[in-house]
Amino acid sequence: MKAIIVKPPNPGAEVKDIELSQEVKPGQVRIKTLYTGICGTDRGIVSGKITFSRPQENASELILGHEAMGVVEEVGEGVERFKKGDLVVPVVRRGCGICLNCKIGRPDFCETGKFVEAGIRGLNGFMREEFVDDVMYLVRVPEPIKDIGMLTEPLSNVVKAVDEILNIQNRMIWTCGDSTYECRNALVVGSGPIGTFFSLLLRTNGFNVYLLNKRDPSPTEAYIAERMSTTFYNTTQGLEKLPSADVIVDTTGYPSAFLPLLKKFKKNAILVLFGTSSGDKVEIDADLVTFFVENNIAVVGSVNASKEHFREAVNYLTLWKEKYGSLVPRMITSMVSPENGPEVVSKKIPGEIKTVIKWS
Q1: pLDDT the model gives residue 176
Q2: Is position 103 annotated in a ligand binding site?
Q3: 215 in a known ligand binding site
Q4: 93, 180: one domain
Q5: Can you give the pTM of this predicted structure?
Q6: With 40 labelled, which of 54, 64, 152, 207 sits at a CA distance of 20 to 30 A?
Q7: Residue 232 annotated in ligand binding
Q8: Tens digit of each residue's pLDDT (9 = 90 or more) over 40-51
Q9: Are residues 123 and 169 part of one domain?
């Protein structure tokens, strides 16, 4: 079968015909891949900049891809929750089996670091024509969101991060006088798919949202921002017109992009660091530390998601498809064949929000 493979830490990707055992054991299903999404992590692996990526044990190659949706083709013995024809998305991170968090289904908080992640480290991913997986790592996708179900994985990470925001801010009474979050302002740095999902989810929870980039929006970004009632803001115009912030979310990984915004913080605010990058350096001085201390500013880094967050993401996609129609589908700005996969995982397509590989 065809697959897109990499050889970390070496840069580059290629389409290759591979042979893997497709035996379906008890408790497993065989899945025909329909779509796989491309994200910054994939491109970091292909460029060689992500140094923690690694193949499976005793292998020299890794099948790329962690954002996927497929259809069940064959059901193994003892499987009752899935049947042939069901649409599913696979969970990416698989626990270490040692720490308590992993034992209770929260490998996103693994304490040993000995987890594996499909298409990233230690486990083959989903950029291939089909794969076999244990049912415990699968989440069903309803037919009405078949066209956007591959967005479940990136959205699941955002669902987890917003849960963390609300849980951490339970350190005080943080709702408004009318019991909502409609008096709270959120600044989201970066207008890619993750930034767009943060904006949409925070807006769904009632926040006033400003989606930030250092340029004007593309026509698609302008449409999405207008439909979800957020403000797209070009930061090169200066920061004076931005409101005071209760939440700042950085999806870029560049300190130079979000540190200038910190002066916008209200008391008791929260900074969420979600993006990852390298090389960018900005000095943090004692005055900033004092500001954080004196104003009860919380800082949280967030990565990955649990299976329950995947299920919540499916629910949100279903809700938004009903409420907003074409808004979320328009986030998918390019659809390419597997043969073009290596090219699009090497560099972004102009105007891209989300590029997807169509396998079937």
Answers
A1: 97
A2: no
A3: yes
A4: no
A5: 0.96
A6: 207
A7: no
A8: 999 999 999 999
A9: no
If asked whether residues 108 and 209 sit together in one domain, one would say no
53 in a labelled binding site:
no
Counted residue by residue, the chain has a size of 360
Give the structural domain span for 129. Answer: 2-148+328-358
Is 192 annotated in some ligand binding site?
yes
302 appears as a binding residue in the annotation: yes
Helix (H, G, I), strand (E, B) or coil at 332: strand
Same domain, 179 and 297: yes
What distance in Å separates the CA atoms of residue 251 and residue 31, rounded to the nearest whole number? Answer: 32
Integer angstrom CA distances of residue 289 from 239, 249, 261, 292: 21, 18, 15, 5
Cα distances from 132 to residues 27, 32, 78, 244, 298, in angstroms, run 10, 9, 15, 49, 42
Q: Is 142 annotated as a binding residue?
A: no
pLDDT given for residue 47 in this prediction: 95
Largest interatomic CA distance in the chain: 62
Mean pLDDT of the chain: 97
Contact indicator for 266, 246 with CB cutoff of 8 Å: yes
Burial 119-129 (b: 16+ CB within 10 A, else e): bbbbbbbbbbe
Q: Are residues 236 and 136 in the same domain?
A: no
User: Which residues does the chain have with pLDDT short of 50?
Assistant: none
With beta carbons less than 8 A apart as the criterion, state whether 48 and 156 touch: no
Tokens of 200: 């949409």
* pLDDT tens readout for residues 274-287: 998 888 999 999 99
